[in-house]
Amino acid sequence: MRILIAEDERDLNRLIAKILEKEGYGVDACFDGNEALYYLEHTEYDAAVLDIMMPGKDGLSVLKAIRQKGIDLPVMFLTAKDSISDRVLGLDSGADDYLIKPFDFDELLARIRSMTRKRTPHTSSVLTVGDLRLDTGSHTVTRGGVPIELSSKEYAILEYMCMNPGIVLSREKIENHIWNYDYSGGSNVVDVYISYLRKKIDGGHQKKLIRTVWGSGWTLKEDT
Q1: Going by C-beta distance under 8 Å and a sequence separation of 6 or more, which residues neighbour residue 29?
Q2: Which residue, 30, 50, 66, 222, has most beta carbons within 10 Å?
Q3: Distance separating alpha carbons of residues 32 and 165, to the nearest angstrom
């Protein structure tokens, strides 16, 4: 999943981004509301974490602006304002969640998983395609009950494919969804990771789940 972090406390911003990247998320980070609004208007995200008190535009104004434009991604507010009225205002403004500083990073990760799951057809943390099982809560993957060890990027790509079973995902769509604006890798990096995943997911199995759709991309689906 790809997430935007808008937080003007730079050390906290960098720490949140580092933790999310370690969990396999693609992360873009900015430090003021005007930049956050630009990112949200020009990039497809799965979720956004917005500080309420930011330079330029505050988080409430950013959220109002994207909702008016029909951008309906899950949004969490981070703030030091902890009164009941502040929380009510944030949630009534269209936020999906509201986390008060200081906070525990495990709770932040759990809340992100929860609010993104609520906005998708997948009500469970477990995604299955054939005998492939991916648990978004524990970040574990098995096939036929056998654990499969994946790198963070391999996991992120597989999760994206599991959330879109049977849908052809192009190289550009995978790249844009998994990597951030700062990415400057080679043009075949997605191909390389798909090759890694094929060896780990389909190696030794008669039924192949990762299919190439020549000229279009790849899809994850069970034999019919």
Answers
A1: 4, 5, 6, 7, 13, 14, 16, 17
A2: 50
A3: 36
Peptide bond into 147 cis (omega under 30): no
Residues in the chain, overall count: 224
Asked if residues 162 and 129 have their Cβ atoms less than 8 Å apart, the reply is yes
Closest CA to 6 of 25, 32, 40: 32
What is the structure's pLDDT at 123?
A: 57
Q: What is the mean pLDDT of each run of 10 residues along the chain (224 residues)?
A: 91 94 87 94 90 90 91 89 72 83 91 79 77 89 94 89 90 80 68 94 92 92 75
Helices (H), the chain: 10-22, 33-42, 59-68, 84-92, 105-118, 152-162, 171-178, 189-201
Q: Mind listing the domains of the chain with CATH numbers?
A: 2-118 (3.40.50.2300), 126-220 (1.10.10.10)
Other beta carbons less than 10 A from residue 157's beta carbon: 25
Structure confidence at residue 119 (pLDDT): 64
